[in-house]
Design brief:
123 residues, four-stranded antiparallel β-sheet
C-alpha cells in the first residue's frame, strides 16, 4: 500500500521561499510520474507541477519560472521548490503518484495521494 507524507509547508511572507517534500513508502516511483497539486479555500484542486520518470517536467502557467519540481528516486522523494511566493499561492498542497492514465495535469490521472501540507503566504 502506498503511503505519501508531505512536509515543508508553513506561513511565510510574499517573496519568500519554501521547499515541500513528499516521501513515498510502499511504492517505487522510479518508473512513475509524480505531481503536485493544490487546493485553495473554496477552490477546486488544481495542478501545480508534474515530473515524469525520465525527468521531464510540466508546470502550471501560474507557477512557471517560480516553482521547480524535482525527484530523488534513491530516496523515493519528490520535491517542490517554491520561490517568490505570492498570497494567491496560499493553499493545501498535495503530492500524488501512480499515474495510471490521462494527462499529468489531471488529478484523476493519479491513484495515490498524500494528506496535504498547508502553505500560507501573507502580503
Amino acid at each position: 500500500q502506498v503511503h505519501l507524507v508531505e512536509s515543508g509547508g508553513g506561513l511565510v511572507q510574499a517573496g519568500d521561499s519554501l521547499r515541500l517534500s513528499c516521501a513515498a513508502s510502499g511504492h517505487t516511483f522510479s518508473n512513475d510520474a509524480a505531481g503536485w497539486f493544490r487546493q485553495g479555500p473554496g477552490k477546486e484542486r488544481e495542478f501545480v507541477a508534474g515530473i515524469f520518470w525520465n525527468g521531464v517536467t510540466h508546470y502550471a502557467d501560474s507557477v512557471k519560472g517560480r516553482f521547480v519540481i524535482s525527484r530523488d528516486n534513491a530516496n523515493n522523494t519528490v520535491y517542490l521548490q517554491m520561490n517568490s511566493l505570492k498570497p494567491e499561492d496560499t493553499a493545501v498542497y498535495y503530492c500524488a503518484v501512480k499515474l495510471i492514465e490521462g494527462p499529468i495535469a489531471t488529478p484523476s490521472s493519479f491513484v495515490s495521494w498524500g494528506q496535504g501540507t498547508q502553505v500560507s503566504v501573507s502580503s
